[in-house]
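Bug #77: duplicate submission created two jobs. Keeping one. Sequence:
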Amino acid sequence: MSHDLVIRGGQLVDGTGREPYAGDLAIDAGQITEVGRVEGSGAREIDAEGHLVTPGFVDIHTHLDAQIGWDPDLTPVSWHGVTTALMGNCGVTFAPCKPGDRELLAGMMETVEDIPKDAILGGLPWDWEGYGGYLDAVERLRPGLNIAGLVGHCAVRFYVMGERAVEEQASEDEKRQMAELVAQSIDDGAVGFSTNRFPPHVLPDGRSIPGTFADADELIHIARAVGARDGLMQNVLDFSKIDFTTGLLKDLARTTGGRVLFSFGVSADRQSGRNGAKYLEHLCEGGLDITAISQPRGSGFVLGVQSMLPARGETWRRLRQQDFDGRLAMIRDDDTRAKLVEEASREGGSELPVHQTFFMGRGETPEYTAEASQSLGALADAADEHWSETFLRLSLETDGRGLFTFRMFNQNLDALRDLFESDRVFPSLGDAGAHVSQIMDAGWASFVLSHWVREVGLYSMGEGIRRLTSAPARVIGLRDRGTLAVGMKADVNVFDPDEVAECQPELVHDFPGGAPRLIQRAKGYKATIVNGQVSLEDGEHTGARAGRVLRHGASA
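Kept job's structure:
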């Protein structure tokens, strides 16, 4: 018997939590048809000796809603083994949208998620009004990955309430209309609904986005519609109001009778991880299906000569105005460098806490786990320099390519380890497609494999793969992806477990209009298969665009 594709001689990690075992995999017409020993030949065969063969990874927190218009390969996540991505998180989506509101929704995405508005307006066709129409437009783009989408509270609220959506409470009739609109969106393919109650997420005029202060009853109305359709409720929350937030999560889970997802993390305090794990157990008492996601490492702004700059002053302002070559030329000049140090040394000259900022190293892979003794502040103290001297010296020594990361979130890796011991939280939250010139976390899956599985051993390989595949697939509501089993869709990765890792981020200008973004490649991946077609081989796209729009309730 012949097959379309056979992956032969690897170690299978099937996504259920089972540990690796030797076997082959056969694929026909986009589905897995044999698992174990495959006797027949393949029209194409991949030699997986020395490699793991796993389900494709599922990224449940992206903002690729706009980028898909001009980058259907969906980099960087496609370089990191992701075969299915969930868009529409955090309440901000481009549908539903009345024709006159397009610029407003684009501007909101720009201020909340750092995606250039001009790129959004110019890079998408904007030929839809309802959410189903948006998914139709995405489908016509022929994405390289599978795409699922949430319908966002901001768009729904503005569609129903207009300008009143920003600061006013909805009437009972408006709550009913919003619930009906969400129900229609799910019927048209959205896998659920997302909302955002984080006040710093603002519109271009500085006001918090629609829905931030909505009455809980409004969300309960919507939750009834979501639950009736077995959809997902995704949340960004305000944990400064812990009692309200806890009650809201529980009420949403009880109302939907199903899956509720929210973003979470730890502080600098070691105890925060254990406390977070206990909090998750408390949330799920009584069998409630509430899941958290968190970045798998310290996360925040990426700084460097090719990226954001860390200080204020006239010379720093002029430095910002230069392209990369111009910046490098400026810092190579002794007099200019002295002015930069003098300005950064003034009161208020620094724009970041230097003891939370870390050099990412000179190697092929970034040093994301450096101890406090390796912070920019500590390195400056050890060298008897001002921190800006250290920043500029390391930048010069790397020809301007050296980068630094400000650990704003998840500062304590020990606390994060304690949190990740809970089965109620999964590593994720890469925010791919968002904060494109500021943050680069899209390689989160590769970090889980290199750090939490290979280096630390927090997860066995079987459990680590489960948390990247079948577990997030269940949260989205996908039943035909996430495991290696006969009849499942053939989304598959082949990688070297001893080599897989993130590479150093770099700044490119490939958005519409030449807008900048950070990208990050990976190492160790031999092949990524999407719906049975080889999408990436040895880290390079093959040109195959086999992704599908995964509409709720429909088989792709």
